[in-house]
């Protein structure tokens, strides 16, 4: 049960990351266009956030890794994501009025909007590994399996968002839904924590 | 081993016959390049030189010129866009979104030498091709801005720039820039229009997108005409900040313009009767917005 829940949560983390990244292009385009550099900004920011998240998540897992902290990661990611729905537009306008070059404008806006939630989402994978590894000799295999699960989640998040979600819903509705999913994940992890206590 | 031999035979055969196929009915490619945004292809057949944004043979051309009569407009949609002159025949400041071969800015600068024209094109390579192959010329009164049209529009609004005529021609071909087909974008364009400003847009008319697109324009512009082609699936929207002119007024304007537009092969006298202000789309359709703009997905259906 524990393993299944952690894998499901790692999958969902991957799903949410790529869904946000894909929506990022849509969110930035009214202010910075849809030129290739806008995608360059978004991808740079996501790669930076994930690399920082992997590093911090890995470090964090050294200190008494617990399901409770794991639940907190999802909660914090949700809390950091949701403000985009209400303040994203104002933030982009703020940047647009101050930075004329759309390359650096889009990079700054993407940093301010997507860096905080994505760093936390990046912490999920290494933290999942530490929760699942009990035998050091199997750590490589478990890490590989978790990369597989979370990257599969990313692939499905990309596909579902670009093919269907943008056709069915508003961007804000999808962002709210992703926040809801992260909070449900937090609750699921918390339940597992209480079950184990 | 036997399989390898037969496979090589087939490949050899295909190699031998491929030049035959490529010669049959194919226009000559005079220039091709891969830009940051697309494949650019310039083809030539008889006296017609065309700009294409795809290597697909059946791809609709973006822009064509008749090399023997370079003033003549080739496409009906380009001619139809000039029907916007029926609503304001002397625009001083003109903004054109999407350069293509530069047909519209060249024609307008010749017809209205007093006007100041700004063309916005996202792809620098398209500007170069327009100059090298389609006789497009930048000048003091014809300026090109290489940038995203949405960014240009927002900056222009901050500078409080106004235009008497805005031409949206950025949606040709396979791909629609979705952020240029939303209620918010059209509202930004509306803010750029002068008191007697006119906006004309080349649009899609065959897919489900027709209803969404029409609803989006109607949500922003109270006064607009539809102009459909008799021979193709083109549809032009002409929206005005002022009340729409009567048929008689437009016929009088057309009469005055007819001789000047003749060298461009624009049948301006035929347009007044074809301009229709009655909605022929599903008026219950919601407009496209920055929040919901799956224009390409809707166009594919």
Structural commentary:
The complex is a heterodimer of chains A (about 200) and B (about 300). With about 200 residues, chain A is mostly helical. Chain A has 7 helices and no strands. In chain A, helix 3 packs antiparallel against helix 7. Chain A is elongated and about 55 Å long. Chain B is of the alpha/beta class and about 300 residues long. Chain B has a single domain, classed as Rossmann fold, CATH 3.40.50.150. Helix content of chain B is about 35%, strand content about 25%. A 7-stranded mixed beta sheet of chain B has the order 7-6-5-8-9-11-10, with helices on both faces. In chain B, helix 4 links the parallel strand 6 and strand 7. The longest helix of chain B is centred in the N-terminal third of the chain and has 22 residues. The chains are: A mainly alpha (about 200), B alpha/beta (about 300). Chains A and B meet through helix 1 and helix 6 of A and helix 5 of B.
